[in-house]
Amino acid sequence: xxxxxxxxxxxxxxxxxxxxxxxxxxxxxxxxxxxxxxxxxxxxxxxxxxxxxxxxxxxxxxxxxxxxxxxxxxxxxxxxxxxxxxxxxxxxxxxxxxxxxxxxxxxxxxxxxxxxxxxxxxxxxxxxxxxxxxxxxxxxxxxxxxxxxxxxxxxxxxxxxxxx
Length: 164
Description:
Layout: H1 3-11, H2 14-21, H3 25-51, H4 61-89, H5 91-95, H6 98-121, H7 136-161
Helix pairs in contact: 2-4, 3-4, 3-7, 6-7
């Protein structure tokens, strides 16, 4: 079974049709998705800005992470669920969208960046926790995260306005 045939099958389910053709369901899901995106990415931006040394320089990195990461994770979970529902409503549009593919690749890169940071850079945080400018690896992870999230947001908006 190909990805296209799976997308076609999903497109023809009653749930997909119901979301897509509803006057209120699709806009509500999309609104929740955008609010969760603003919430989670906004919080992640503060963490990233601390990592690159551009904000909260007087706060230890561990304190910023411990306070903000749980909230960002909750927003991200809401984002994933609402995003899956949006995908479910228009799987063929997403299948044919280069913007959707780019967004998914950027999300994969964001995940790899987060895992790399967590297991490679963050274990040594005790040595640079209070530094105004964290080490190169932390700054690099912060910049990558900011750039990839910008790409995710732009591609997500492009999916919404693409015709096909």
